[in-house]
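Hey, can you fold this one?
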Amino acid sequence: MTQIAAHDFRLALSPEAGGCVDALDWRGHEILFPTHARAKIGSAHPTERAGFPLVPFAGRITGSTFRFEDRDYALTPNFLPEPNAIHGFGWHLPWQVETHTDDMITLVHSHRTDQWPAAYTARQTFRLTETAFELEMSLTNMSERAMPAGLGWHPYFAAHDARIQSQVSAIWRPENAPARQPEPLDATCNLNTEQTATDINLDHCFTSTKPDTLIRWPERALQVRMTASDIFSHLVLYTPKGEPFFCAEPISHVPDAVNLDAPAHEIGLRVLRPGETLTGTIRLEPSAL
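Sure. Predicted structure:
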């Protein structure tokens, strides 16, 4: 485990285990639902950690197959027994520490596989500032061929007493069998109005009008505003019934974007040419209520 502490924040990472976050605290408050609350840190699956990266794609790819520039690709299912590939490669592979200072850590992960159109290098730079935790993510095409590209982050938050509000305009139903087109919001999923995490049961992608999500815990007198770069044009909200956590995941494209016949601006799919880089930043700013 690698740790830094600065400006009232403490961050714990496991670079060798998928570049995952194990804990993020602010003034003694657990901002993320920590790994130790569900699993032993040394042997935890990424889904038992406080957060993990989504590269070079986010969400599920139906049947683990897609076609890109006249070639067919077959991915290995990586969340058995589910038949779909999910969340990219980075969350299951080791990352290396590239830079480590008192208030910043950069992790790097390079990957070459016949299952993806091009080799790539991904980076996560974690910064602790006076007011916020910042995560800058980047993905660079290191090959001579183009590739589809996506970024995302999969953080876990405590569900008890949590209230969620986000600026969204449409919902893609359902996330676990990717939807083909967005649908209008209704009373059961309108995140523009504050919702109680334990009262809703969602595993869906939303189109963001602005990457801005507010999470409040009134009993803890705590709130966190999660904002992001415009490339994070969508948000997955996962609120499993009966679990002590939920997930609010900024992502750059809808799940299964590589298999959707839809305008790129609607689904968020990017294509990186050789040497090009996709970059975005996610920011968590906690404050007392």
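The helical segments are 264-267. Let me know if you want another pass with a different chain boundary.
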